[in-house]
Amino acid sequence: MRPKIHTATARWFDGVDNRPQDVRVRLSGNHFEFMPWPPRPQSSSSMPSEAELAASRPSMPGLRRYARKALQVGEWWRDRPTPVGLPDGGTVWLPADSAMGRVLGGQSLLSQIIGSWSLAMCALVALVALVVWFDRQGVGLLARATLPLIPKQLDAAVGLQVEERLAATWLRPSQLPMERRQAIRARFADVAGRVFPGMRFDVRFARQGDHKGSQAMALPNGTIFVFDGLAELLSDDELVAVLGHEAGHVKHRHAMRQLVQGAGLLSVTGLVMGDFPSVAGTLLASTQTMRYTADAEGDADAEAQRLILREHLPNETLVGAWVKVLGEMRREGRIDSLSGLLATHPSIGERIESARRAAQEAEPLR
């Protein structure tokens, strides 16, 4: 089968003179050839015929021939001329919408999408779906996958910086009796040594600015803050269960996972490459919007339930603690309104249900 021959009228820049010349071009098999065409008499407005060019021979004066593989062809775009770079430095500009330009230059997927509204709409829908998926699941999966690559020394460094920041701007000294603070610390240290062997925890008591506060929170370095309002609200058993919950977050590195997830891919790269100082600032800034997922709360509740069983406490000790916190929030008129640096959990209702599921699914220790 003979190869299909494409012909066209084009403009040629020889790379020396900035004035173009009209040429007739032919693409046949693996060869690209053209020849300047002298101007016709003014009385004739017709262009050279396809037959005239097809009948030309390499021996004809001015005919140029190039191997197709030696050409540098620009991408074909609708309504745009296609440039063909020649090995000797010249350029032939094929006319817009020419079949030869499409054969030589081809058309990328991007140009096809841009040139077709239906393809563009499909690409837009796919992009939106990808962004939604990545926001809801993909970024979490990425953070979980990269977490093992992040050295645990960074947990301690970030936790210490957050701790210093809180102490300087937000925390106030606890007014809880020293005897109870010491008793809770000693009891949890004893329990944690059995339930979380090899892990370091430092229980601190404080007030939340001008308020007592009714929360607890754990930093990546193992420091757990208990606020006076929560300590006054809960019994010692319930407080130890809550500390077990917070210790579960530290064990599973939930804070670091959320911080890395919020910081984004560039920070993940910095962490892996060891650029700790520049990343730490980004991580600290993201603590303002950090929220644990339901899965993370379930993991922490499971750790608290393990502590409850080991200490032979009532099975729903943690549930009772969250119910008391809910009651306090209702009295203060701030249901589900955790804010600022303490907005690190789902709603209190979700936490109660999570703790209740952990209590119901817990298997007795043997």
Describe the protein in words.
By secondary structure, the chain is an alpha+beta fold. It folds into three domains: 5-107, PH-domain like (Roll); 108-148; 150-361, no CATH class. Helix content is 50%, strand content 15%. The chain contains 14 helices and eleven strands. Strands 4-3-2-1-7-6-5 form a seven-stranded antiparallel β-sheet. Strands 8-9-11-10 form a four-stranded mixed β-sheet, sandwiched between helices. α4 runs antiparallel to α9 (254-263), α6 (178-195) packs across α8 and α9 crosses α11 (276-286). The radius of gyration is 36 Å and the shape is rod-shaped.
Shape: rod-shaped
The helix/strand order is EEEHEEEEHHHHEHEEEHHHHHHHH
Count of discrete domains: 3
Q: Quote the average pLDDT.
A: 75
List low-pLDDT spans: 39-45, 54-59, 271-281, 283-290, 336-344
**Terminal residue distance:** 82 Å
Radius of gyration: 36 Å
Number of strands: 11
Strand order in the sheet with the most strands: 4-3-2-1-7-6-5
Number of continuous helical runs: 14
Secondary structure: helix percent: 40-55%
Keywords:
366 residues, alpha+beta, rod-shaped, 3 domains, PH-domain like, 7-stranded antiparallel sheet
